[in-house]
Amino acid sequence: MKPLKVASIQTLPEFGKVAENTAAALSLIPSSCDLAVLPELFNTGYQFRSRDEALALAEDLHAEPGAESTLGRLIDHAAASGTTLVAGMAERHGDHVYNSAVLVRPEGSREVYRKVHLFWDEKTIFEPGDLGFPVFTACGTRLGLMVCYDWLYPEAARTLALAGAEVLCHPSNLVLPWCPEAMVTRCLENRVFAVTSNRIGRENRTGKPLEFIGMSQVVSPRGEILDRLEGDSPGAAVAAVDLSDINREITPRNHLWRDRRPESYGL
Description:
Blueprint: E1 4-10, H1 18-27, E2 35-37, H2 51-57, H3 70-81, E3 84-93, E4 96-104, E5 110-114, H4 122-125, E6 135-138, E7 141-145, H5 154-162, E8 167-171, H6 179-190, E9 193-197, E10 200-203, E11 210-213, E12 217-219, E13 225-228, E14 235-241, E15 249-251, E16 254-255
Parallel strand pairs: 1-2, 2-3, 7-8, 8-9
Antiparallel strand pairs: 1-14, 3-4, 4-5, 6-7, 9-12, 10-11, 12-13, 15-16
C-alpha cells in the first residue's frame, strides 16, 4: 500500500479577511499531497464579538457554493490538486451557526462535522454539534474529524477509532499548552494517526487576549511525532503515513479492542 502524503497547515489569519486568509492557507499546501488539514475557523479568525458577527461570516456548507466563497475555493483547490481537504469553518444552517469542519474530496463531494465540545466563549456564539462523531471514507482511508477542544475528551477519539477511523483530522485554534502531547496519547490509546492543524498569532477583539500556540503536527499510531512545527511562523508539517502501521495487537494475547470491558466502564 502506498503511503499517504499528509500535511498539517499552520496559518496566521487576520480576523475578517476571509479571501486573504483562504488564499494564504491554500498557498501553504504542498504539491502532490493526498490530505491536507487546515485550522479551526481558518478563513475568518477566531474571536467573534457576537453570534450575529459569526453568522455574517459563516457559510452554508451543504448548499452549492458561490465562486468567491471559501467553500468554492476549497472545492476548486481539491479538484485542481487532487488533495482531500479538511478545514475548520463557521457553518450557517438556517438561523444557527456551528463551529464546523468540512471535508472536501477532489471530485467535489463533501462532508461536515460540527464541534461537539465548545470552548469558553464559543458557548455564547455557536450551537453545540449535533451530528455526533461520524467517520468518512476519503483518499484511500477512513477519516475521523474532531475540532480543537474535542481533544480533551478521550471519548471523541475513541468513538472515531471504534467506528473505523484510521486518521484523525483535527483542525484547531489552540491556546492551552497540553494538546500536542495529549494527541500523542490519543494516538497510542487508539492506534491511529492524527493530524492536528493549529494557527499562530494573537487576537484581542473582546478584551480577552488569546495567544495561539502553533505546534501543528502529524503523529503516528505508536505515538511518534512524525513532524511538528514551532509556534512562531506559518508553514506545513508533512509526513508520509503508512496505514499498515495501524496494528491493534498489543501482545500475542492482547488486542486493543477485544480486551475492552465495556461492562465495567459504567458510572
